[in-house]
Amino acid sequence: MKGLIGKKVGMTQVYDEKGVLIPVTVVQAGPCVVTGVKTVERDGYSAIQLGFGERKAKNVTKARAGHLAKAGVTGDKLPSVLREIRTAAGEETPAPGSVVTAEVFAANDYLDVVGTTKGRGFQGVVRRYRFGGGRASHGGAWTRRTGSIGCREWPGNVIKGKRMPGHMGNARRTVQNLQVVRVMAEDNVLLLKGAVPGANGGILVLRSAIKKPAAKK
């Protein structure tokens, strides 16, 4: 299992060797410093903790600064984002304090990308769930409303999970099996085929795909 923390830069398009146009997302992937290693014997699971970004040391809490110091991560600027990447038990992992770059991935690798979707605030059912709404004439008067949400007698309540107006977006989402089109190792940049969750500048977790698609015959 390989992984990195990255930042969404934006979307563009590139051509492959056959001249086919491919929409890609540009991701700044790393460099990430290893700030901790979790083991089954000590923590109950196996993972590595990575740090990404920069924040002035004076703006970092003492608890986090102490945690980073144990990994040998010190200086005027410290990582602003910490995330964990699960690993297999007994798998060889980089030592705390070492740096992981975009070179851990290669072209044609498949990744699972975790991000936070754009927040849309409080929205109605037409936008949130693409409801069709009611009729616009002949006594309608509920053009963009939900409609019936329960019963008068049995069961006499609103069933759990009923789709209703509410907070839309700003949720953690994972997009599986995104192909790496190109690795620009000198700039720590990955070009991923397709779209990823969130707005430009959003933090992403990139990890090896769990459900890697079968090779095309």
Structural summary, described in words:
With 217 residues, the protein is mainly β. It folds into 2 domains: 3-120 and 175-208, Elongation Factor Tu (Ef-tu), domain 3 (Beta Barrel); 121-169, no CATH class. The protein is built from 3 helices and 14 strands. A 6-stranded antiparallel barrel has the order 1-2-13-12-9-14. Strands 7-4-3-8 form a 4-stranded antiparallel sheet. The chain is globular. The model has no long low-confidence stretch (mean pLDDT 90).
Q: Class by helix and strand content? A: mainly beta
Supply the CATH architecture of the largest domain. Beta Barrel
- SS element count, helices: 3
Please give the share of residues in helix.
under 10%
Distance between the termini: 25 Å
**Regions with pLDDT < 50 over 5+ consecutive residues?**
none
CATH superfamily descriptor of the largest domain: Translation factors
Give me the Rg, rounded. 23 Å
Classified by CATH, the class of the largest domain is Mainly Beta
The name of the CATH topology of the largest domain is Elongation Factor Tu (Ef-tu), domain 3
Number of strands: 14
